[in-house]
Each structure stands twice: as C-alpha cells, then as structure tokens.
Amino acid sequence: MLNFEKSKQAFQESSRYLPGGVNSPVRAFKNVGGEPLFIAKGDGAHIFDIDGNRYLDYVLSWGPLILGHADPQVVKDLQAAVARGTSYGAPTILETELAKKIQAIVPSLEMMRMVSSGTEATMSAIRLARGYTHRDKIVKFIGNYHGHSDSLLVDAGSGVATFNDIHEAPGVPEDLAYDTLTVAYNDIEGIKQVFSAHGEEIAGVIVEPIAGNMGVIPGTADFLQTLRTLTSEAGALLIFDEVMSGFRAAFHGAQSLYHITPDLTTLGKVVGGGLPVGVFGGRKEIMKWITPDGPVYHAGTLSGNPLAMTGGLSTLAQLDESLYKQMTARTDELMTGIKGAADAHGVPITVHHVGTMWSYFFNQGPVNNFDDVQKSDVTYFAKFFKALLQHGIYTAPSQFETNFMSSKHTEADIETTIAAFNAAFDDVARTK
Ligand SMILES: *Cc1c(COP(=O)(O)O)cnc(C)c1O
C-alpha cells in the first residue's frame, strides 16, 4: 500500500484555512472518499505527490496540459518571459500573436478577447449575447458546465452534481435562474419546444458540443445542427463552449468535427498551456459590441497577461495534426484496453472518447445525457479509483469527470495503464 501520510497532514492543515481544504471543489476527493494527494511536482506524463509516490497522470490539471508537465520549451519560454516582468497593464505584441495563432487554428474567432479563466470567458460571452440581441434568456443543457458565474450555474454537471442536488445553486438570485432555461442534452424535441415557446426572448444557446463535465458525451450531429438552425431562425446566438473541447476533441476544436460555425466560441484550458487563460470570440460584427468599440463592458487587470500569453503561445506552437493523430491513436488503444479489461472481469462499462478526451462509466449504457450518467455505479467507481491509484494511475476522482491524454504519454505508458486497469479490476473483485 502506498503511504499518503504527508498528504493527509497537509490536508488537515489546509482545511483550517481553505473551505474543504482546497481552492476548487473537485480536487477534494469528496465523492471517492479519503484525502486528496498534495502534489510536489510534475514531469511529462507523471506527477509526484509530497510522499514521493509517482503516478501516470491523466488529469493533466483538468485538461490544460496537452504537452504534459513542465514541457522543456514551455518552461524555457516562461523563464525568459518572467525575467522581462510579469504584467504591464498595457498592450504587448504577445496578445496579437496568440490571437493570430488561435484564429489560424479556429477560424470562426474573427475577433476575440483574452481573459483569465473559462468562467470569465463564458460569463462575458453571455453578457455579449444579451447586449447584442437585447434579450435576456439563455438556454443551457443539463449536465453541461460553463464555469461558476450566476447565470450558468443552473443544472451545471460535474462538480455541482457531486456536491449538491444539480438543480440547486444557492447564492444565485432566482431572477437570474429564471432567465436560464435548461433542456436535456441531445434532446432535439426538448430544444424545439423551448424555441417555439420562447424563441423571441432567447439571447443565446450555450452548449458544450462535446460534453466533458458529466464524463465525455458527444453531442449528436443532428442535435448540434438543430441548435444552429433554431438560433439562426430566432435571431439568437449560438455559443460553443469549447473551454474543454478546444484543442482537445480535435486540433481545430469540436466545431471542425461537426462542420458547424457558432456565432461565439469560448476557449480555456489548453489555450493557456497551464497558465490562466480564457478566450471568447467569434463573428467580428458581434465582437465589435465589446468596449471600447461598443457598449458591452468587458475589462481585466490581468487579461492578456504576458506570462499567460507566453504559456499559450509556447504550447500552441508545438501542436499540429500529426501530434493529434498520435494522441488520438493512443487514446483509442487505451479505451480498447479498458473495455477489454472490464469485459474480462464481467464489469458493466461504457467507454467514451473523442480525440484526447476520454471517460468510462460503470454503466451498461447507452449514455447520452445527464440522466443516463446518473445510472452509473458510483460506489464501484470510488473503490476502483482507489485501486487504480495504488497501481500508480492518477485519474479524475469522480465518475462525472473527463480524463485526458498528453503528447508525453508513450506507447509503454498506455500498456502500463491497461495492465493497471486489469489489476485494479482484480483488486476490487477480491475485496467484494
Ligand atoms: C473548465 C470549464 C469551464 C470553466 O473554466 P475555468 O477556467 O475553470 O473557469 C467552462 N466551460 C467548460 C466546458 C469547462 O470544461
């Protein structure tokens, strides 16, 4: 058994100062039980906890680290940047360079704004949609997560589902929740009904085209195409929240897989390469509504921060189609291995993956929406998660989260991981 003594002590200490001992709830291991690991360092595909245990890491900071930990080029670029100062509150060429790079990869962002988190990106996109359309209502899908701003915290999946009744969002004024209409994910009839009842009042529809905050659930092509058609007809904006799926589901984002052009897109996670960056952008005519060009207010002391821009630029510069081919092939292989291991042990499982995003549900399937996810065996998941950890594999500590692949995960790492899954299934069977 691995020794977690130092992490346990660190957690007792942090719990005196931070609610739940953490700065973001899903880190707390609440729904698998026990204490979270405190991390000392990361190196490529591995992380090391403060007790000196080493793990193959598939959390990757919840998505951003597509090049793994402490990529040598990223470290070098950041070291050079920090020596020039950390923030100026005045424009730098880096911001334009990153914007150009993003646009080259995701062309629907004709103009964009840099912010410091995915939450800020979606919050700002929603305000822009409301300002631009002069309408108040927003549509979101049950189990999609768009950060923790007021309007978007209703029925928000993952972290929220783990800790609360998903419908509840204490602290969010009822009036705001009233303007957020929620529909089941992949429910074409449901969204049609909402538009026939409220079409004229809807500012925008925000959707994760590939949902990643209730495990991985791809939107169906018909569903996403229906959203495009309905919003266009009603004069509402279609917002693709690609904070997770951007540079993850595919190099050019989920929008390239479905051949759908949203009006606005939000990015985050990979776009900062492990530094705090979010982006919202889209059609020029709409983005022109942002201050100081237009009336919709947006600002940020650290927006476009030079270190954050450098993290993004250095990361995106290393990405290309062939790297995605390699990472996707390794993800495919891992999924086949996990499915095979579960089948061999007679454990019902559904595995989903798109590009470098992957998850598995202890559930017979099919898994197409949040209700389906809820049928998963979370008790089994908790046991299994801990068994995997003992075999040196660090995955998301919740049945409702996505795991990721990095460019640093080797063929040998995949084989090690599949062997660990087999061993973990054995372990859980033995303790039954
Ligand atoms: C992570 C995430 C967010 C929130 O981003 P933060 O940087 O955590 O604020 C928003 N939308 C989606 C789809 C996400 O996965």
From TrEMBL:
The modification N6-(pyridoxal phosphate)lysine is found at residue 269. Belongs to the class-III pyridoxal-phosphate-dependent aminotransferase family. HemL subfamily. Keywords: Cytoplasm, Isomerase, Porphyrin biosynthesis, Pyridoxal phosphate. It is an enzyme of class 5 (isomerase). The keyword Isomerase applies. This is Glutamate-1-semialdehyde 2,1-aminomutase. Pathway: Porphyrin-containing compound metabolism; protoporphyrin-IX biosynthesis; 5-aminolevulinate from L-glutamyl-tRNA(Glu): step 2/2. The gene is hemL. The keyword Isomerase applies. It comes from Lentilactobacillus raoultii. CDD domains: OAT_like. The lineage of its organism: Bacteria, Bacillati, Bacillota, Bacilli, Lactobacillales. It is found in: Cytoplasm. Its EC number is 5.4.3.8. It catalyses: (S)-4-amino-5-oxopentanoate = 5-aminolevulinate. Homodimer. Its cofactor is pyridoxal 5'-phosphate. Pfam families: Aminotran_3 (PF00202). One of its GO terms (molecular function) is glutamate-1-semialdehyde 2,1-aminomutase activity.
